[in-house]
Amino acid sequence: MLKKSLFTLLSLLLTIGILSACSNEDVATDPSTEDSDGAATITTARVLDDGTVFKDGEDVHDNVVTRWAEEELGIKFVTEWTQPNDEQFNTQLRLMMSSREKLPDVFLVSNNNIKADLIQSGLVMSIDEAIEEHATPRVKELFERFPEAFYPSTNEDGERYGVPRYSGGNGSDTLLWIRQDWLDKFDLEAPETLEELEHIMDVFVNEDPNESGRDDTIGITFAAGDEGFRGGNIADSSWVFGAFGDYVPGNWSQAADGSLVYGSIQPNVKDGLSKINEWYEKGYLSTDFAILSAGDAQESFISGRSGIMAAPPWAHGYPIGEIAQVVPDAVVKPFPHVTGPNGEAGRRGEGLIVGSFLFNREFEHMDKFFEYWDAILGYTLGESEHFPHGLFEGYDYVMQDGEPVYNIEQFEEITGEDHVDPGRYFLPTNIPTIPYEMYGLLEEFHDTGRDPVNGYEANLAGREKDYIHAAAIVNKQNDIRIVNEFSGPPTDTMSSRSEHLERLEDELFVDIIYGNKPLDAFDQFVEDWLSSGGEQVTQEVNEWYESVR
């Protein structure tokens, strides 16, 4: 009787959880797959955060994009539910999966664990046949160019289940941001090597660059409180390890024989730890950097106490741009990553995708999905028959004297309305990106000064000069990217041992940097890591790698 009562209560709570997780804007589910006027209905669900701003009178259900899709492509999109962030979105997916509730026709999944569970559940469809039958030549060419983008949504039999939502490829790769006004104050040149960077840090720490009269500055901002040294991009330190070899902590990268090895146990990481320990001993680092999150660590740079921080190009606005509110005269400029003793350089590389579109196994309109995908991909490629000037007039551009105006200030002066980004309305929650395309264009604009030739290029060319310069620097250093080749769900041994293995790593790295243990303790750590499950994890990672390739 008790078991039956508990089961009834659990079922009730599960039902309440599913209903309460839905947005207030939810609409009725299970619509007809074809409208009375012949339009194909495609249901979806999405994250709808504060970054998506609609014009007055529009919302996620009715806006310029949904009307365009229905009028031009014969597709009626029905957003069944929304959530404000990935965490809540993933929670709702899990609830629906566990209760075997019907999923939307198409939805974006960024979490590899949920992706793997959905594939195993049988609730989503394999898309190999649909790609062959319905994908356009330029979509197929993109898929063939980046086959690794399918790895996170490929099952053990090699069947593909998810259409990649590509990242910028290198969009969150880092470079160095340095106080140019401090460099100028001491007649310092831009650093090209670790040795030259160390000299700059020494000056920033010991020569009172902020003229406070106190010993209150550090050389560089690091953060190791989020994921240890295994990830992150604001206050990143991966480039220090990359200056000594081809591996960075936390990444699974190819060895000479083509197999994957774990970066944190490679010899060059030991060299990197030695260098960071040296910097710590000289006072170049904050004493509490090991426990600081990126959000906390960045305050040292924003407040004017630090002269150097690694971060992606997009950080020029936030957090780096925040320094103007504290130190109005500060000048911050982007610089390439420096080389190590043997002329090597390396940085952690962003993954190829930000998620995969999965499809309900009963979905009947893959032909219309690929038609839609091709139409908006054409905009990114500058080959669009639908968007010759920009996306939508009165949203991201306005016509004046027969010419499109993209500048936001001019747009708002002409229209008397706020400029909005209709790209956020699309199914991918933005216009499609193509790896390395955006920074490649920004590098071209920076180096040649040529004019943009379409709306997509105009949007890029109109961005801040420092952002464009930083993007050009990152793109020129693409050859130093060190990527994580493992993009599958956690292996069996990872699931049971990763917490222990990560704790071993984090504690040892911090102890070496703080001088609590000698550098040679790294060698014992490698042995302990392998014997505590790491060797089995390595075998499982390589079994996955072979299966998806």
Question: Can you offer a commentary on this structure?
Answer:
- The protein is α/β, with parallel strands linked by helices and 549 residues long.
- The protein has helices at residues 2-21, 64-73, 86-98, 112-121, 128-134, 137-145, 180-185, 194-206, 238-242, 267-281, 294-302, 323-326, 366-381, 408-415, 437-448, 455-461, 465-476, 492-513, 521-548; strands at residues 40-47, 75-83, 106-109, 163-166, 175-179, 252-254, 260-262, 308-311, 332-335, 347-348, 353-359, 398-400, 403-405, 481-482.
- Helix 5 (128-134) packs across helix 13 (366-381) and helix 18 (492-513) packs antiparallel against helix 19 (521-548).
- The chain is globular.
What would the keywords be for this entry?
disordered N terminus; 41% helix; five-stranded mixed beta sheet; Bact_solute-bd_prot1; Extracellular solute-binding protein; signal; three-stranded antiparallel beta sheet; alpha/beta; cell membrane; palmitate; 549 residues
